[in-house]
């Protein structure tokens, strides 16, 4: 006796479609989750790279800070100034491979703009300035909600030069603290960076632009 071939019933077909739909939805959720995790990890990597780059730049600057005053529009400025949130200093380490007469020293300023949540690095190519010189500006770090600099000598100070320095004495204006401390908040994460100043005994070269 030959049995008739039996196909899928409508109920079985509907059940199969429902199972396939559930599996597809679960697979899409897993795929979407993996994409979001990848994007989040990439974003965190970019943030970490930005922090590392900023840290390395500040580290290089701190190593190259030197006790040389700056002549700005005939006003002799101390080697390092920290006043009312303004932070600038003299540094060496400038190279001139093409022998274009580039000065071996420059003036650096860190400028935090709260409205933009960005930390800028301003570079003046010469310690002798007219007061109208335009610096080379670059973004050191963005997404910064808080930025504060203090000096260590060895106690922590919010201003430099401090009261022990005679600002009428050019030699005194060359005095540097022992280190600097930077507190900043990036993407709601707080950081504290401490740097030693290594060139406190730097010998002044015969450079008339620093007098």
Automatic annotation (TrEMBL):
Membrane topology, as annotated: Single-pass membrane protein
Q: Which residues form a coiled coil?
A: none
In the record, the note on similarity to other proteins reads: Belongs to the GSP J family.
**Claim: Magnesium is one of the keywords in the record:** no
Write the protein's name.
Answer: Type II secretion system protein J
- UniProt organism field: Acinetobacter indicus CIP 110367
A GO CC term attached to the entry: plasma membrane
Compartment(s) where it occurs, according to its Swiss-Prot or TrEMBL record: Cell inner membrane
The positions making up the signal sequence are none
The record's listing under InterPro entries reads: N_methyl_site (IPR012902), Pilin-like (IPR045584), T2SS_protein-GspJ (IPR010055), T2SS_protein_J (IPR051621)
């Amino acid at each position: 006796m030959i049995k008739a071939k039996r196909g899928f019933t409508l109920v079985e077909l509907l059940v199969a479609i429902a199972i396939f739909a559930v599996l597809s939805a679960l697979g899409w959720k897993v795929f979407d989750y993996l994409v979001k995790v990848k994007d989040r990890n990439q974003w965190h990597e970019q943030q970490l790279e930005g922090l590392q780059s900023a840290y390395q730049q500040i580290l290089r600057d701190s190593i190259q800070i030197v006790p040389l005053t700056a002549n700005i529009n005939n006003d002799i400025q101390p080697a390092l100034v920290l006043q009312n949130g303004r932070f600038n200093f003299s540094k060496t380490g400038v190279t001139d491979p093409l022998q274009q007469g580039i000065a071996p020293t420059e003036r650096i300023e860190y400028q935090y703009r709260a409205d933009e949540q960005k930390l800028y690095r301003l570079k003046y190519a010469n310690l002798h300035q007219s007061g109208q010189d335009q610096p080379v500006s670059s973004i050191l770090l963005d997404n910064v909600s808080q930025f504060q600099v203090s000096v260590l000598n060895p106690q922590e100070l919010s201003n430099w030069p401090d009261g022990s320095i005679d600002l009428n004495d050019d030699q005194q204006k060359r005095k540097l603290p022992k280190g600097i401390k930077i507190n900043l908040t990036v993407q709601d994460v707080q950081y504290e960076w401490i740097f030693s100043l290594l060139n406190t005994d730097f010998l002044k070269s015969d450079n008339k632009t620093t007098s």
